[in-house]
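Q: Can I see a sequence and its folded structure?
A: Here is a first one.
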Amino acid sequence: MKQLEKISVIPESEHSGLPEVLSAVTPMAMLNRALASGASMEVMEKLMNLHERWEATQARKAFSEAIAAAKAEIPPIVRNATGHNSKKYADFAAIAFIVDPILGRHGLSYRFRTTQSDRINVTCILAHKAGHSEETTLGGPPDGSGNKNAIQAIGSTLTYLQRYSLVQMLGLAAAADDDGKAGATGELITQAQADNITDLIESVSADRGKFLTFFKIEAIADLPAKRYSEAITMLNAKRK
């Protein structure tokens, strides 16, 4: 204790000559100090530019963190539709049903920008509430297959490009569709699991009809056991 009493303390009057190493000084704090001290316009402009770059960096970091967190929650999207050559794919409604509530919970949203000449170009813009956004563009000709008229051909291509630009932007994975009931290929969920799903649908205000349509079942008890976790994840994603 005697030795501790010998430690000297730097007088308050001498603090001004020491570097500020114990607290981080943001560009905005520097800007406020410069403004209060009557700094020149040249100095103020440099600090403003520094502040803008700092904010952009923080927004980009927040965006990356939100994307990582959201992707960790997004399950594989079931291929619920059939396209050309009987190939299965996840339509836009199935993708949006899963990802929209998850993205929203992490401050993310997406929108599309479209241009058209001889080709249709769709840009998916993924943005974070902090201000940072990133985008990807896909293009293609109007889809004239299947005796579509001109408007239908444009609409088909728009839907296709919106779906795949969002998939590309989020790096989504698609799961094979077991086409509903397990039947002879697997077990169904237990009554307790069915009751749990029923309660969860009510608690998150989900649309029961859409849920049944999505899983291609007539009743909740018909849900295959191997899709129980997917259903729980999907419903939990709707929590606000």
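Q: Show me another, different protein.
A: A second, unrelated one:
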Amino acid sequence: MSRFALHLMRHGEPVLAGTMLGHTDGAATPAGVRACREAGAGLAGVRLIASDLIRARACAEALGPAETDPRWRELDFGEWDGRRANELDPHALGRFWDDPDAHPPPGGERWSALLARVGAALDALAPVPTLVVTHAGAMRAALCRLCEFDRHQAWAFDLPYACLLSLEMWEGAPRLARVTGLRA
């Protein structure tokens, strides 16, 4: 069984930092793009894929020509998208954090839907060294799928802007991965 590296990078700091940024399409700051370029500088020769949202796509394109794949988008926060947590009903927000599948944001996406679309994106990867520039929620969904973490385990990872999570994958075993590094 051959191995290949899968690197997941969170986009750089967005202009709208501090908000529930799901499908709202906002840019990354110049410093955020620079941080991603620096974090990915040692990954020459990888296939480069990005979420189609501009904050991820711009960070990927700072590293080289990138394919876009909307399956790598962040969770859709529906009516909460683009809003700050302190602007939301605290009880509804608490129910969401406790169980994002049973209590998705109003008009938003369930956790299981994010798991399914990220899973489909993972299944479509060729067994070649790959860097995906994406979002924290999609990275956590990938950890659940690849490492069989439950949601609570995946949320225990601190995934700051421009962090790089490296996994070792085995061709033909899409659910087997080993986390080999997390750099921020």
